[in-house]
Structure formats: C-alpha cells, structure tokens
Amino acid sequence: MSDVPTDKRTEYLTAKQLAEALQVSETTIYRLRRTGRIPAVHVTDRLVRYNLRDVRRALQRANAAEPEADGDDAQMGFADIFSAFEATQE
Fold first, then answer.
1. Over the stretch 9-25, which tens digit does the pLDDT of each residue have?
2. Considering the entire predicted model, what is its pTM?
3. Where would I find the H helices in 13-71?
4. Contacts (Cβ under 8 Å, ≥6 apart) of 29
C-alpha cells in the first residue's frame, strides 16, 4: 500500500481567488460568468464557486475557437499610434 493520500476532492475558488490566480479583476470574472464563457458552480442562490482547471479549459477552448484578427479588426498598438502621431507632427 502507498503512503500517498488518494484524496480526489476538487478545490473550488471564490471569484476573488480565481481573479488572483488568473491575474485579472473580479469584475472580469463576473463578466465572464455572466456571459457563459467560464463555468461556475452555484452552491446557493448567492454563493458561487469556480474550479480553476475547468475555467482554464473553457478559456483555452474559447481562445482556440476565436479566429485570428486580421489587419482591419486588430487592436492598435502603441507603435501604430506613435507613428501616426509622428506623421502629424512633420
């Protein structure tokens, strides 16, 4: 027999703990849950918990499903804005 415990319990996190683990704000966690992008476990009407492994899987699937942004829809970076600013200063 092994001395390693075979504890199969799953750890559930609060919105604050999940936000810290993913390095985002709690507001982002609430928004992702509200839009159905991350799974949540409703313990009671007001008590919600998250499984970190399930949330990460859901976010990875969502990222894989999103098409790559082309040049027209891509968000502008600082270099784009700065070069446009420099062009107006000449």
1. 788 999 999 999 999 99
2. 0.63
3. 15-22, 26-34, 52-65
4. 15, 18, 19, 22, 38, 50
For position 22, which CATH number holds? 1.10.10
How many domains does the structure of the chain reveal?
A: 1
Residue 75 exposure: Cα atoms within 13 Å on the Cβ side: 2
Q: Which amino acid is at 90?
A: E
Provide the phi-psi class of 77: left if phi over 0, else alpha when psi is between -120 and 50, else beta: beta
Residue numbers of the domain that contains 36: 10-64
Query: 88 pLDDT band (50/70/90 cuts)?
Result: low
Q: How far apart are the first and last CA of the chain?
A: 78
